[in-house]
Amino acid sequence: MLIKILGAIDISSGLILLFGAGVKLPSPLLLILGIILIAKSFLGMFKEFGGWVDLLSGAVLILSSLIAMPIFISIIFGILLLQKGVVSFF
Q1: How far apart are CA 79 and CA 32, in angstroms?
Q2: Kindly report the CA angle at 41 between 16 and 21, in degrees rounded to 5?
Q3: Category of 46 on φ-ψ map: left (φ > 0), alpha (ψ -120 to 50) or beta
Q4: Comparing C-alpha atoms, which of 29, 28, 17 is closest to residue 85?
Q5: Tell me, what DSSP letter sits at residue 26?
Q6: Phi-psi region of 45 (alpha: psi -120 to 50; beta: other; left: phi over 0)
């Protein structure tokens, strides 16, 4: 059950990174999701690739609330998070 909740967080964050790349989203939303992803990355203690994807995606979300991030970076991390979230449902 916990894996599916964490996967849903991955999917929602991935969709925000993928489709919200050129749109200005509310900063508190980006900060909260970024903090959740960074906290989630510490669960695996960086032993696997997914933990690093969470850490870097959380950093991209937090930075995108402060500065304008390049769109291709948001799209790449959005795709990685979507893939990771979909796999967690199987």
Answers
A1: 20
A2: 20
A3: left
A4: 17
A5: -
A6: left
> What is the full per-residue pLDDT of the chain (90 aa) written as tens digits?
888 998 899 999 999 888 876 667 788 888 998 999 999 888 877 778 888 999 999 999 898 888 888 889 989 999 999 999 999 888
Q: Provide the residue type at 46 as one letter.
A: F
What does the DSSP 8-state code read for residue 90?
A: -
Give the other-Cβ count within 10 Å of 1's Cβ: 5
Q: Quick check: 6 and 40 in contact, CB under 8 A? A: yes
Radius of gyration of the chain (CA): 12
CB within 8 A of 81, min separation 6: which ones?
A: 10, 11, 13, 14, 17, 53, 54, 57
